[in-house]
Amino acid sequence: MADGVVLGIDGGGTKTDVGAVDGGGRLVGFASGGASNWEGVGVEAVGEVLAGLVSDVLRQAGVGPDDVRGSAFCLAGVDWTSDTERLRPPLERLGLAGPQVLLNDSFAALRAGLSGSWGCVSVAGTGGVCAGRNPQGEVARSMGVGMGEGSGAWTVLMAGVEAVAAEHHHTGPATALTELLLSSAGVASVPELFEGLTRGGVQLPDDLAARVMSVAAAGDEVAVAAVGGAGARHGRDLAGLADRLGVCGEEVEVVLAGGIHVHGEGAFRDGFTEAVRARVPAARFTVLTAPPAVGAVLLAMEAAGLATDGVGPALADDVHRWGLP
Known about the structure:
Layout lengths: L4 E7 L4 E6 L5 E7 L4 H4 L1 H19 L6 E8 L5 H12 L7 E5 L1 H8 L5 E6 L3 E6 L5 E3 L11 H16 L8 H9 L4 H10 L8 H10 L3 H24 L8 E5 L1 H4 L4 H11 L6 E4 L4 H12 L7 H11 L4
Parallel strand pairs: 1-4, 4-5, 6-9, 9-10
Antiparallel strand pairs: 1-2, 2-3, 6-7, 7-8
């Protein structure tokens, strides 16, 4: 390919997507594979996953590593400068030409969802994080450590668990969440539930946060308050990020990503948007529909100095045609 390609990589704790586009933004290669969060699988395993996928995508595009004009690696677990340093060696072993960008995967979701060049993203899925860029190109993100900030499904679940404990201690009202947690854990009483949680005998199902939100959607007032409070916590995180970026007085585009946001209509969304607008009154909200890999490709194009105007929607269609949900 005469004008070479750029590579966008979106890597998480479950899978990694790699896309190659030509200079005009046309998708010419795509592949998905294993996890590339070094915290879960280790640095060497990340290197192996990336090497296999990049090789596959370059082969599809009919080019070699020397033909790469730029690449953007948006990987979960890239949280600190030390993470960047530990991941540089496996990236260098790929032998790719052109400038390289290494970022947390939240920036792929941000870029994929933006209609303009700047804004913020709130990711609420299995975990939670927010990230943003201001009109001057400055970037910031939350720590994503689950302390002092929202943590996606875990925050929703813990809000539900605390409501059940409050009912048991007669410090909170009765709630249908009690029956939900007991049946989900396969136990007969609240003390048995908490004994199992604290002593390791009870394992809560992975989809329990979604079930908690369903109880809220059915109108249980305690669940509504719990889920709304979880949403507000994530909203305060986003508003704080906007303040750090100096854009609270601007019309900020806010991208919502992750399963809790995508399926969180109702109490969670209400709590989130109210908390954001308390400090960012002109915020505009949009739910991410494009695969985050599209954002990684756009970041790679920008790193290579290529124009990205109008590329995003067509690229998202291309990725879907290549089989990515």
